Task: structure prediction
Amino acid sequence: MSFFSNLKDDIAYLKGALRALKMTTPIAKHPTRVFPFVIAELAEKFGDAPALISERERFSYRTLSERANRYARWARQEHLQKGETVCLLMPNRPEYIAAWLGITSAGGVAALINFNLVGPSLAHCIDIVEPKHIVVAAELADVFATARPLLKSSPKVWSHGASPDLPRLDTMIDVLPGHALSETERAKLTIEDRALYIYTSGTTGLPKAANINHYRVMLASCAFAGVMDTKPDDRMYDCLPMYHTTGGVLAIGSVLLNGGSVVIREKFSAREFWDDVVRYDCTLFQYIGELCRYLVNSPPNPNETRHRLRAACGNGLRPDLWDAFQKRFRIPKVLEFYAATEGNVSIFNFEGKPGAVGRVPWFVAHRFPIAVVRFDVDKQQPVRNAEGFCVPCPPNEPGEVIGRIVNDPSKPGNRFEGYAAAGQNESKILRDVFAKGDAWFRTGDLMRKDTRGYFYFVDRVGDTFRWKGENVSTSEVAETINTFPGVEDANVYGVTVVGRDGRAGMAAIVCNGECDLPGLHAHLRSNLPEYARPLFVRIQPKLEMTSTFKQKKGDLVRQGFNPKATTDPIFFSDPQTKSFVRLDVGLYQRIENGDIRL
Result:
């Protein structure tokens, strides 16, 4: 890499970082200026300009502020005290934003509930935040009914929309005054006060409710306003779940702060994505990686290159997809980033380097104390040396990414705010890392950092497994499988085999038509070391995903390669024939008995 290439990358990073810094530096200097109050300022400035647009409703800046004021007055009318929680079980729509803005401006905390959950998991998410109220959209009444008998808490339940047996919040809101809140109506808030509970995805267990204070809401909004350099003529397409940070805070706040508008779609649709982008004249869209994979695997759409998008911003765009995604859809700029809702590690790829989640150049490293430490896959813990300290990874060695926790009032972004259930906090903190008494946030993600400081995602902690004494990255194996023609997607995981150490590789795959298993076997032999090649392949009609398109592995791991556990066909990589053969009960038993050498 030439000196001039390095300089070009440094300049691109510096420009982006300075924009973000310009937007975020004032936050700590004005501790009582929280996002709900900023919306009131924006209403004065932009008035009837469009703010939030959907098929269901359109809010100008003035309308959004007035709706939020009505929710704030409802909260005060219900004697909601500062710090008390209101759960929102509502689909994507502008009204959802107005609701949490109003609740938080009154001093309450809005818990943004995943409406795809049912039964025990939904009851768990409600109970752990001990709500005083819960607002249930009428169309989600049946979903809530699966959890209501299981609740340990006793919130007052409101319906948003027609309901036969619940008080209607929407009609109550409509008659309340929408004019600006007086000083006495506003809660005494600072950026240190809690604003939201946003839940982790729960891919490997029940979701955790992350504490999101007003500082973090401002930080997400302001930082990404700078990262994307948003303008009044920008229009963001947002089809991500609004109960998560990316779809519900980042995509919204970053554009509203500078006078643009956000198009909200209730649910992602690959078939209608490009039609929407063109119809609403969008200039930006927010992605997560698997959304991009769905788009690339979709049939051509005439509108996929008729748009006037200037950038796509998001996280999780994998290297095997990056070039195809950007070239096919003619995306001028991809702004990839890495961040955790509850964490203190943020990395940006301002340079558009394919495959990288971002970097931390030397000239800003002091502001963002991030390290990659050697990780023991068997123990699922970072490696310690003879002195008991963690071992930094050399360039290109995968390890767990950690961020130093700095409890400095002037650097609130370096803190770890924790979860509603305080008992869950300690598992995310690594202590005595490089010196006695220091503390670092565990991201739970394995990455490698190259010699130029670019970070590349490798796998989730717990997804990487060991086989034949080697670490196998499920993400890297999946990327190799996905490059084979006819494979639409792959979910790779490790399964236990009786009498064998470690876990054997297995892949659940979805094919576009007939699966060419002989070709896939040859492809894996040519592109992966022997220990990393999946021993078992399960063919599925579709992969199970969370609502944010993260692959679910739990049931697949539990079912393993037992053909009795599923009706999906399973194939075994036979070492004798060097091909995939259909796995039946007899062959399964021979493998479990140790009759076949793996």
The mean pLDDT is 92. The longest strand covers residues 439-449.
